[in-house]
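If you are new to this repository, start here. Below is one unmodified record pulled from the training split, so you can see the exact layout before writing a loader.
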Amino acid sequence: MSHHVKLALLGVFLVLILGPFETDSFSYENLPAVAMDYKVHIDAGKEDCYSQYVNPGATFYVSFQVLRGGDGKAGFAVRNPQGNLVHPYQWRPNDDYQDQSINGGYYTVCIDNQFSRFAAKLVNLYITVIRYDQWQQYTQELEELNLSVENFTNAIVHVEKNINEMLQTQHWSRSREARDLNLLLDNNSYVQMWSIAQVVVITVTTMIQVYFVRKLFDVKPSGYSKTRI
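And here is the target side for that same chain:
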């Protein structure tokens, strides 16, 4: 499922929930937290780039891992909203980047497979945008109602950070599991192919040896030879 389809489904789900309240002003970019986990196919010799909006003051996190294809590595780079290369290209099997955006804007994530001329890559991409400042806004709104919820808000912020760390850990675990499974399947196919090839070679070699051995003992009697008693 593509990135845009996932965002569309997420938007429809939240519209159904929040529709009776703030349907007109709803936007997934205004949510306190957005997380996306999807797989992309990068053709050989190609580069794909993706953009993600990050609110001012929000924490942007992105990670990638090559699941299968070629040498299991790809290039990974990140540009900030100003167009600066904040994470330069590195040919690695996995990598990640985190930044707290000050002014906000669109971050660009690029996955490069140009060094691989013949092998396509399957890459797992994980992106989150967390707005921790939203909890402070909730605190101010509640304080206007003369409610003391500072400890409660701090606890919620702490839980939110822990949940985000857990999601990142789960993402790495799923990525490693998928990578190991693909590696196991590739090794199984490799072993089966070479086993069949070896069986064919041994069979052909045996048949050739039998043929030449039989030819060696296949002596035809001469017409001039006489049998002596």
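Two things worth knowing about this chain: The radius of gyration is 31 Å. The CA atoms of residues 83 and 108 lie 8 Å apart.
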